[in-house]
Design goal:
The protein is an all-alpha fold. It has 3 helices and no strands.
């Protein structure tokens, strides 16, 4: 897809440019803008790690909060406080 955009940009530049040096300068400008756009999309904001960005994206994609089944196998049941403090 990017190659198609690149070819279309070069074809468009040939219409407006009558010297090969102008075509080369225009192609370099298009390549520079494309690389900057890719870099801005690919690099997370400054000071934020990739893990933090991944967690934020995961949290935003969830529509319903996760519900935990307290009666699931292997899960201890919560106990009410007793008269004496627990040993642990």
């Amino acid at each position: 897809m990017l190659l198609g955009w690149w070819a279309a940009a070069l074809a468009g530049l040939t219409v407006f440019v009558d010297h090969p040096s102008g075509l080369l300068a225009g192609a370099a400008l298009v390549l520079l803008v494309t690389l900057l756009a890719v870099r801005l999309v690919a690099v997370p904001a400054a000071g934020v790690s990739r893990a933090a960005c991944a967690l934020r994206a995961r949290a935003r994609s969830r529509r319903v909060p996760r519900q935990v089944d307290p009666d699931a196998p292997g899960r201890p049941r919560p106990r009410a406080p007793g008269l004496r403090p627990s040993a642990a």
